[in-house]
Amino acid sequence: MHAIVKDLVPPPPAGAPAGAAYFGKEQVGDMWRDMETLHALGILVRDVKVANYLGGKLVDFSRAWTAPHPALEAISARSLRRQLVRDPAGLRDCVVHVGDAEGWDWGEVKLPDELLDYASGIERQGAFGPDPRVYEWRRWEEDLEAVDAFLETEVWAPVASPPPEEGIGARGELVEEGGG
Which terminus of the chain is less hemmed in, N or C, by CB atoms within 10 Å? Predict the structure, then answer.
């Protein structure tokens, strides 16, 4: 398992069950800005749920696509749109779930308009927030030729097919002994 620790998450409030996800209504705006920042940094989370938040910070990126990622390169515009809607929709659902469980006064909770629009699939100015595919991660690399070689041989290399079993052809058809 690998992890990067940027900040330590404050302990949960007194009385919270051990291991419980938690955040307060005052953190919702920051949580939305964090999501936008992640997309702008080439990270599509793909698994936004209450259990993945601690102290208002997203802590689980196990299903994330991070540029460069073959799926981000191959995804169609329509599929990307659906993915870009899922992250804010997941955040909206987290806020509603925690808010209902905690008995929040919804008149005191300010959900950013962009969050509600994106989560509902409403385009604002022709986009669904930052496109993670356009993040130029290569600018941080010193040896661009090594990066290109790594991408070519490791990330986007074709996957070799296993040899067919005896008697079964590459397409699943029956092959007679000695035949092809």
Answer: N
Neighbours of 178 (CB within 10 A): 5
User: How buried is residue 157: exposed, middle or buried, by Cβ count under 10 Å (0-12/13-18/19+)?
Assistant: exposed
Report d(CA 12, CA 80) in Å as an integer.
Answer: 35
73, 48 Cβ separation under 8 angstroms:
no
Rg (CA), the chain: 22
* Exposure string over 73-96, b if 16+ CB within 10 A, otherwise e: eebeeeebbebbbbbbbbbbebbe
Please confirm whether the linkage preceding 132 is cis (ω < 30° from 0): no
Q: Which two tokens stand for residue 165?
A: 């079993």
Using one digit for the tens of pLDDT, what is the confidence trace for 29-65? 999 999 988 988 888 999 999 989 988 989 889 999 9
Given a contact cutoff of 8 angstroms between Cβ atoms, the answer to whether 39 and 127 are in contact is no
- Give the distance, in angstroms, between the CA of residue 58 and the centroid of all CA atoms in the same chain: 10
Specify the residue for token string 């998450």. 9
